Protein: Diphosphomevalonate/mevalonate 3,5-bisphosphate decarboxylase family protein
Amino acid sequence: MSKFFILIETDFILSDFSLSKIQEGAVTWKTPSNIALVKYWGKQEPQIPKNTSISFTLDACFTLTTLEFKLKTKLQPEFNFEIYFEGEKKDDFKPKIEKFFERIEQYVPFLKRFDLVIKTRNSFPHSSGIASSASGMSALALCIMSLEKLIKPTISQEFFNKKASFLARLGSGSACRSIEGELIVWGNHSKIEGSSNLFGVKYPYKVHKNFKNYHDTILLVDEGEKQVSSTIGHQLMLNHPFAQQRFKQANDNVLKISEILQNGNLKQFIEIVESEALSLHAMMMTSNPYFILMKPNTLKVINKIWEYRTITKSNVCFTLDAGANVHVLFPEEEKESVNNFIINELVQFCQENHYICDRIGLGAKRLSNI
Ligand code: DP6
Structure:
């Protein structure tokens, strides 16, 4: 077990004196989503990934969360909170948050001492089929860390970010990759310095200029609830006949992509990224029960991208989440040509022509002082 884990576990001895100085306040964080280049698919308790993953932090797809807190007048054994989503009180979100609070309680024992109101909204439409758990859970984790910093102002920025990622992971695995930018590694890897199973870390080596301002245009091929939640998908890896081979493939791909991120070879980048997306879907197709998460239009988009690459020698490529929507990735210098290609050839496959133009981002931002 890492030193950091022990540090988090034992770090808090809260005096009533330090709490009594804090009566009430609010903090707001804007936290991005992320897209994995090498996928996290398979985990064990407590939210430990079976393989290392690496992601681009996004920018335009984000969650905005305000945490209002007020010191309780009397001690209560339970959490007391309300949650509002896009202005509406959402009691059906409460069990998920309650479970998250229970999981993190031992690391943030002060939380129960406050009455809490969580107000949250996403920059992308609720029904778009874009998972909001990464941006949502990381935003809440950061708000809680701001409260911790108020109680204990001496904590360092490094500790703040690592612990925010640690907490976010306990809400949703991929959320631990949404604290910082631009490239984040999560999961121990012998060849990546500082990598950890417990929190996401910034990719530690110099990234080639080809990956600066990388674009991700998300084509909303199928809006609406996902057919299978990620949580169920991870569980299906437990008895999956190809699981061990998949975890090895992902760890090998992390090593390969790490070299590519430094040498800038876009052709090799495409091979890894597309193969990862298809391997993720292959796992779902070969699990028990099995699922096909792509839609006919997902395949049409993929074929169009391959055709366009053959004709133009472009470096555009695709990746997928555990759903039908397609992330179209391309370098900054191809921005105009690929945008034209997307508008002229790909948008027709999106539901109601919906798509989101995003790009690699710098990470979460606090929007208000306490
Ligand atoms: C396909 O982080 O949503 O997007 O840990 O159960 O909350 P939980 O799962 P989640 O899984 C994300 C899976 C993925 C691939 C990835 O982002 O690496």
In short: The pocket of DP6 is lined by residues 36, 39-41, 47, 53, 131, 133, 172-174, 230-231, 234, 280, 321-322 (CB under 6 Å). Residues 18-370 form a domain with the Ribosomal Protein S5; domain 2 fold (CATH 3.30.230.10). DSSP finds ten helices and 14 strands in the chain.
